[in-house]
Design a protein that fits this description.
With 320 residues, this protein is of the alpha+beta class. The chain has a single domain, classed as Oxidoreductase, molybdopterin-binding domain (Sulfite Oxidase, Chain A, domain 2, Alpha-Beta Complex). The protein contains nine helices and twelve strands. The N and C termini lie far apart (39 Å). The N terminus is likely disordered.
């Protein structure tokens, strides 16, 4: 097996953190004048069903969309420290090993309890839904965190285009299985491949749930989940699947990969909660990559005001 050692996308190929930050400040200033944080891009034709008008994907308040003003983590940290067991359990080795992955062409299928299932190429989806930038907190269940400037589009747009039926109660995400290029899928990690994750339908349709196609204003690096991954910022990192190929809307709660491996440690919800410890460590504090000090973990990773109502009346100990 020949592995390309030269990354397809290097730090020098993407928008610099300084330029990204400057552009973000310009956008915010312009938004204040225009009275809108984001207007989106005009959708282009693509071989997918039409979308009925709705409130899906409405612009978020700047404080939410921009992680409350926290500065993004350096690109070197985001692109060089990744959990991606399809390639390796070594977070730093992933950056090199992931370059073996072929991501063109790439088709995404949306199916299940929908009236209009469809399959579309990732380039068609980018043209259809456009792109916006969101700076989100990212919290790994292992206790480390980052601030990541993603680009992409609201997940609800991808789902609404398939016209979910009343039977659609959950959304299952299925990632790529390709043992010829994903060396970790040959190893004995205990995980079943392909990687599977899931959300409740109201979680998936929430404005914060984000379909990611880019990072720091450029194409998403392979080690970060190219060409399509999720960013669900109030949940632990394992709830953010990478290299997605199939999305299934289903009536029953799907069994996720980590649930199958260790249900006592990784539940279906995976909501960030400083008061609910992992069976083997506390979640009360986190280590921001690049910092020496630890900081308190925020309920729902700082997004409680936006998402806590989704879980009203539920036992918080069941939300891990």
């Amino acid at each position: 097996m020949l592995i390309r050692r030269r990354p397809e996308l290097t730090d020098h190929d993407v928008t610099s953190p300084e330029l990204f930050s400057g552009r973000r400040q310009f956008v915010l200033a312009s938004a204040a004048v225009l009275g809108a944080a984001w207007t989106g891009r005009t959708a282009l034709a693509a071989p997918v069903p039409s979308l009925a008008p709705s409130a899906c994907g409405a612009p978020l308040a700047d404080a939410v969309r921009l992680a409350g003003g926290e500065a993004p983590s350096p690109l070197a940290d985001i692109a060089g420290y990744n959990n991606y067991y399809e390639f390796s359990t070594d977070k730093k080795a992933v950056r090199t090993l992931a370059q073996a992955l072929t991501i063109t062409p790439w088709a995404v299928t949306v199916e299940g309890e929908v009236d209009k299932p469809y399959t579309a190429d990732i380039d068609d989806l980018r043209k259809l839904f456009g792109s916006e930038e969101r700076i989100y907190r990212f919290r790994c269940v292992e206790g480390w965190s980052m601030i990541v400037p993603w680009s992409g589009f609201p997940l609800c747009r991808l789902l609404e285009r398939a016209k979910p039926t009343s039977k659609a109660k959950f959304v299952e995400f299925i990632s790529l299985k390709r043992t010829s290029e994903m060396l970790g899928q040959r190893a004995g990690t205990g995980l079943e491949w392909p990687y599977r994750e899931g959300l409740r339908i109201d979680e998936a349709m929430h404005p914060l749930a984000f379909a990611v196609t880019g990072l720091y204003g450029a194409a998403l690096p392979k080690q970060n989940g190219a060409p399509l991954r999720l960013a669900v910022p109030w949940k632990y990192g394992f709830k953010n699947p990478k290299a997605i190929t199939h999305i299934r809307l289903v009536a029953d709660q799907p069994k996720t990969s980590w649930q199958k491996l260790a249900a006592a440690e990784y539940g279906f919800y995976g909501n960030v909660n400083p008061d609910i410890a992992h069976p083997r460590w506390s979640q009360a504090r986190e280590s921001r990559i690049g910092e020496l000090r630890k900081r308190p973990t925020l309920p729902h990773n700082g997004y409680a005001e936006q998402v806590a109502s989704l879980y009203a009346g539920m036992d918080p100990t069941k939300l891990f």
